[in-house]
């Protein structure tokens, strides 16, 4: 079933669990994500980033794929534009029936971020489309920078942001980063900050950079109040490694088998994350 992201996250917020938001760029990854959710009887959010959409995964086509497969599924499925920065891309996703838009104006000063986010909220809420915002700095894991505590999301800013914009969910900066971490390095997540923001807002909170963050870190983040966990890099890496192994072992493998392998690797990866997030079995809440 195709639903708004707000429908999924409000239930997760009410019942204290996390939901996986799986990045996709093609049919195989969408199928793998929805199959993972079906087998775990879990809600799922399908993510496609603005950059991914401009380079490969055309938003109109991805939307049709997701909505078609969601209509066949018995679990809730939402489609979210991730890190929407250009208004043209945001309105493109809006026109093509994405059920959620993430407006990322976090590079701007807080009040300008609020102004830009509020404009998107006004547009999207007119058609019952969910909006996710972001405040704070979420960098790249590969940079292995020291923690920039001054760029973490402040509790008072989160409260003000929710009140001023009317967003449905908020991505917060608490120590994770996008991408894959260097060997033997895991993020140091500020769990106290998550708890404080949750207590002050009582709203759905989002953790970007879920890949490679560590099972216990994700479990604890959910306990502290995270409701949406973005997963991209681990899915892409596992699919790539699966294809590499297949080609090494069977060089003359047919192309269709390679695509099936990609889908299966995506499913396996996302099933693991669904179990860690606590959303297995939660699709029953929507029936």
UniProtKB/TrEMBL annotation:
Residues that bind Zn(2+) 2: 104, 134
Residues reported to bind Zn(2+) 1: 83, 178, 208
SUPFAM superfamilies per record: Aldolase
GO biological process: carbohydrate metabolic process
Keywords: Metal-binding, Zinc
InterPro entries: Aldolase_TIM (IPR013785), Class_II_FBP_aldolase (IPR050246), FBA_II (IPR000771)
CDD domains cross-referenced by the UniProt entry: TBP_aldolase_IIB
Matching Pfam families: F_bP_aldolase (PF01116)
The keyword Zinc is assigned to this record: yes
Enzyme active site: 82 (proton donor)
Gene3D superfamilies on file: Aldolase class I
List of residues binding dihydroxyacetone phosphate: 179, 209-211, 230-233
Keyword Zinc in record: yes
Cofactor, how bound (note): Binds 2 Zn(2+) ions per subunit. One is catalytic and the other provides a structural contribution.
Gene Ontology MF terms: aldehyde-lyase activity; zinc ion binding
Cofactor(s) required for function per UniProt: Zn(2+)
Domain of life assignment: Bacteria
PANTHER family membership: D-TAGATOSE-1,6-BISPHOSPHATE ALDOLASE (PTHR30304), D-TAGATOSE-1,6-BISPHOSPHATE ALDOLASE SUBUNIT GATY-RELATED (PTHR30304:SF0)
Protein name, entry field: Class II fructose-bisphosphate aldolase
